[in-house]
């Protein structure tokens, strides 16, 4: 494989917001957290890890010109929007909303007794406007033996969700001592890896990541990802 460049974003370096109903960790500048070195990464603007208390959540609010993705780590999210969608997104499921010309939506904890834990990230679209879109999928129904399940792409290939940006989004799931190779489909200049759970070794001893860590990776021919223990992560090519 070609040379690889890795810039690690340690979990403890993330911003931290805490309310009585919400704990949120920010890989990039968000809300009251500002880090001039981490405004975003290519078209990726937000990477938040949220835990919302039972019976609480984000009430109806507007978005526009943003591609918004959520992966529910545990618990369930209740989604409602001005498009008429009212959906419960369960543990292990993946949600996509293209805010486009404008949409109102709410995301609240579907449980009255247990917290919901989810990863949400935002990607700028290739152009503003358009008709808003809502979609979801259960990656477990598409599980790939090579450890990488294609979730979304710029052209909807292989039955993935088609999104309004030149990106490829995978869910990585590795058993202990398993590895995979992230191969570029769009040129390999920009990848973001976000560890959901477990530990990862990127690029054969180049860098080690633990739960909550992220990394910007550049490699024209791809790079290896290996796990010492059962691990889960999001990989995004931009």
* CATH class wording of the largest domain: Mainly Beta
Number of domains: 2
Number of strands: 22
The CATH architecture category of the largest domain equals Sandwich
CATH fold naming of the largest domain: Jelly Rolls
- The SSE string, one letter per element, is EEEEEEEEEEEEEEEEEEEEEE
Summed up, the helix count is: 0
Mean pLDDT: 96
Largest sheet: 7 strands, mixed
Strand content: over 45%
Query: What sort of overall outline do the alpha carbons produce when their principal axes are compared?
Result: globular
CATH superfamily of the largest domain: Jelly Rolls
Q: For the largest sheet, list the strands in their spatial order.
A: 1-20-17-22-15-13-14
Helix content, binned percent: under 10%
Class inferred from helices and paired strands:
mainly beta
Overall radius of gyration: 17 Å
Give the assembly state of these chains: single chain
Give the end-to-end Cα distance, rounded to a whole number of Å: 19 Å
Unreliable residue stretches = none
What's the helix and strand layout?
Blueprint: E1 5-9, E2 15-18, E3 22-26, E4 44-52, E5 57-63, E6 67-74, E7 76-81, E8 86-90, E9 94-98, E10 103-109, E11 116-123, E12 133-137, E13 148-153, E14 161-162, E15 168-174, E16 179-182, E17 191-197, E18 199-202, E19 207-210, E20 214-218, E21 223-226, E22 231-237
Parallel strand pairs: 13-14
Antiparallel strand pairs: 1-20, 2-3, 3-4, 4-11, 5-10, 6-9, 6-11, 7-8, 7-10, 9-12, 13-15, 15-22, 16-21, 17-20, 17-22, 18-19, 18-21
